[in-house]
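Help needed: design a sequence for this.
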């Protein structure tokens, strides 16, 4: 699935695929859905460490979803954002919602989706 996200007036094309999971692990050394589950657990807390973790994971995922359309490194990608994005709740919510849509984690009408079982070998 593809989607265009506007962040700080710039368009970023994002694409999710099965390869997104592999690319995330190869780039950051952690599992994509493990980091997403960390976000789910942290969203109820409001301390600075939690906020830092949430922002870190959101931008890592955004980078991986944008990676098919750029040759930038993660550092270069982050360098393209103004520091003010960290305090722009609407921008951060738009990013998080787009990630949820692309990765199939959007909840319908406020109801929690049943967790998908993935068989392990």
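Sure. Designed sequence:
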């Amino acid at each position: 699935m593809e989607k265009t996200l506007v962040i700080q007036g710039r368009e970023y094309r994002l694409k999710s695929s099965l390869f997104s999971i592999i690319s995330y692990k190869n780039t950051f050394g952690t599992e994509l859905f493990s980091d997403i589950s960390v976000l789910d657990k942290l969203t109820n807390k409001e301390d600075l460490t939690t906020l830092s973790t949430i922002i870190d994971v959101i931008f890592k995922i955004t980078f991986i979803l944008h990676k098919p359309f750029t040759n930038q490194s993660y550092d270069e990608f982050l360098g393209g954002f103004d520091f003010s994005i960290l305090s722009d709740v609407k921008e951060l919510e738009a990013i998080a919602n787009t990630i949820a849509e692309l990765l199939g984690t959007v909840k319908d009408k406020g109801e929690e989706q049943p967790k998908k079982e993935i068989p392990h070998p």
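Residues 7 and 64 are 15 Å apart (CA to CA).
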